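[step 3/7] inverse_fold.run input=structure_tokens len=200
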């Protein structure tokens, strides 16, 4: 394994080990494909470490059966690594903001966030994936101030990964690790819809 050396050593009174093992807030954003996929790849690493994992999907339909969900559920039940708990928030609203569907998506998103807050306070998981969480934040359905305060004050050793386009700038500034996925080309640009094994 390559030994990365940080260009700056902060004068924060921490040992190298203490600084290395701080819990992180991670944001995957941008217009390109792969934000959720990268988060689930990190969840695989967390599973391998034996960490309990909580996945909270704020946008994906409860009817969708994605490959990542199936694989992580099977791994979590295998007894080999960490446990995996999967939460699908709401009724499967799309990242294209819909109205007239009969569902109160804002209320469902808020309840989803309340569950995350409860789990963070109880230190239920060591690794959290808040998939597509940037959308309820950007639309004002979930209070950004509350999210930032909760993430800053979370107890113990809990990593949190947030995915989705258009991450609010204050969330980006507060995060420890931010990756912006860019798009160079996508099959949809040529009228091709998503397909098995690529999108799910």
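[step 3/7] decode complete -> sequence:
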């Amino acid at each position: 394994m390559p030994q990365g050396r940080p260009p700056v050593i902060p004068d924060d009174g921490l040992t190298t080990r203490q600084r290395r093992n701080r819990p992180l807030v991670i944001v995957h954003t941008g217009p390109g494909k792969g934000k959720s996929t990268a988060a689930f790849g990190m969840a695989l690493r967390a599973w391998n470490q034996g960490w309990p994992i909580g996945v909270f999907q704020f946008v994906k339909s409860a009817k969708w059966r994605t490959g990542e969900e199936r694989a992580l559920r099977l791994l979590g039940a295998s007894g080999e690594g960490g446990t995996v708990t999967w939460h699908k928030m709401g009724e499967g609203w799309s990242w294209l903001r819909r109205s007239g569907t009969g569902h109160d998506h804002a209320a469902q998103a808020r309840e989803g966030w309340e569950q995350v807050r409860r789990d963070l306070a109880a230190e239920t998981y060591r690794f959290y994936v808040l998939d597509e969480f940037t959308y309820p934040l950007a639309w004002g359905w979930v209070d950004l101030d509350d999210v930032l305060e909760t993430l800053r004050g979370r107890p113990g050793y809990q990593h949190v990964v947030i995915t989705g386009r258009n991450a609010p700038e204050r969330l980006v500034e507060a995060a420890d690790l931010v990756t912006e996925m860019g798009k160079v080309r996508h099959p949809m640009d040529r009228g091709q819809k998503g397909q098995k094994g690529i999108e799910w």
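[step 4/7] annotate
Helices lie at 16-20, 35-48, 67-77, 105-122, 134-138, 144-152, 169-174.
Residues 92-96 have pLDDT under 50 and may be disordered.
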